[in-house]
């Protein structure tokens, strides 16, 4: 992929919810977080500067917007904080989906496909703007 994108710098759109068994060749769904895991795995393999995952919320929120409609977007999180939130029930990202990005030190930006102008949440090793 890397060579193809250097020659033709198009923006690839990759579906990530489906996978294929290595030995069996059977097509299967990857389950919760499968698309995000696909994005971070490809992002790490290509050494990207940032990986974006698009959701139906403006980023990682301070609480469940279905319970409290005035939830606010958290602008910056560390990988550790985002993983901990996911383990304790935050539904926006599966904890394992961030592993490739964390290993590659590549920030992950959570964006809203229904509100693309919203800045989203930036997840990286550093919590403050200017360090990631």
UniProtKB/TrEMBL annotation:
> What Pfam families does UniProt report for this protein, alphabetically?
AA_kinase
The chain positions of domain Aspartate/glutamate/uridylate kinase read: 8-112
Q: What is the lineage of its organism?
A: Eukaryota, Viridiplantae, Streptophyta, Embryophyta, Tracheophyta
Question: What name appears for this protein in its UniProt entry?
Answer: Aspartate/glutamate/uridylate kinase domain-containing protein
Regarding protein family, the annotation reads: Belongs to the aspartokinase family.
Domain of life of the source: Eukaryota
Which residues are listed as membrane-spanning?
none
């Amino acid at each position: 992929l890397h060579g193809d994108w250097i020659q033709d710098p198009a923006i690839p759109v990759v579906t990530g919810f489906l996978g294929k068994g290595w030995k069996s060749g059977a097509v299967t769904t990857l389950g919760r977080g499968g698309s995000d895991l696909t994005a971070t795995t490809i992002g790490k393999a290509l050494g990207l500067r940032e990986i974006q995952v698009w959701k139906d919320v403006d980023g990682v929120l301070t609480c469940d917007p279905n319970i409290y409609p005035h939830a606010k977007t958290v602008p910056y999180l560390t990988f550790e904080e985002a993983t901990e939130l996911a383990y304790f029930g935050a539904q926006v990202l599966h904890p394992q989906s961030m592993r490739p990005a964390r290993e590659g030190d590549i920030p992950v930006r959570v964006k809203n496909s229904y509100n693309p102008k919203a800045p989203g949440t930036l997840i990286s090793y550093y919590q403050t703007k200017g360090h990631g």
